[in-house]
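Students often ask why inverse folding is considered easier than folding. One informal answer: many sequences map to the same fold, so there is more than one right answer. In these notes we will look at a single instance of the problem. The structure comes first.
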């Protein structure tokens, strides 16, 4: 588990972000945001001692290149950056920000390309999607030798438990029911 958290709650809306702020979760993920919101939401997160990862590919109004990563690292200062793009991961690592490479397990060809990218970027973590394929989570961990977050299509507590049993460090999900199920302050 990631610092004691089985779940990394992912906020797709301000309502979900507010739920994270009022919870015992220390870590969370921002998914769908707008560049104009970033400074304010990170200010709120910091006031509540929340360490929020930012999915840089889903920031509206921001190009996904190394300049965007530099801006995010220097001005917004997220706890970590999640991206499918190697240049974003490399810049985050250079700036001392936790780098999470998002990998889609679509088919063998896509997975092989992802392994090659992972060798180049050497992220701190990998987020594999979909996260409901336990035997593939095991393979990615063994082959890449990098800790894995499981995300995508995680709908039940059983999905979470299977991903964790397969070796995932944590599970990212925007499912409100799972947020509540795994909260430590119940």
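Output (designed amino acids):
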């Amino acid at each position: 588990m990631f610092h004691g958290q089985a779940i990394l709650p992912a906020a797709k809306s301000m309502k979900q972000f507010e739920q994270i702020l009022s919870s015992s979760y220390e870590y969370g993920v921002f998914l769908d945001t707008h560049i104009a919101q970033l400074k304010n939401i990170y200010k709120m997160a910091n006031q509540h001692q929340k360490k929020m990862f930012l999915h840089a590919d889903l920031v509206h109004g921001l190009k996904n290149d190394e300049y965007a990563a530099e801006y995010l690292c220097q001005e917004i200062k997220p706890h970590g950056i999640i991206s499918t793009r190697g240049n974003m991961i490399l810049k985050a690592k250079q700036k001392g920000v936790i780098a999470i490479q998002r990998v889609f397990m679509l088919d063998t060809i896509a997975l092989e390309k992802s392994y090659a990218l992972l060798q180049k970027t050497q992220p701190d973590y990998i987020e594999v999607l979909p996260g409901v394929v336990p035997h593939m989570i095991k393979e990615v961990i063994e082959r890449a030798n990098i800790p894995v977050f499981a995300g995508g299509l995680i709908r039940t507590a059983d999905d979470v438990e299977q991903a964790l049993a397969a070796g995932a460090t944590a599970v990212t999900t925007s499912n409100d029911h799972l947020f509540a199920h795994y909260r430590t302050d119940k």
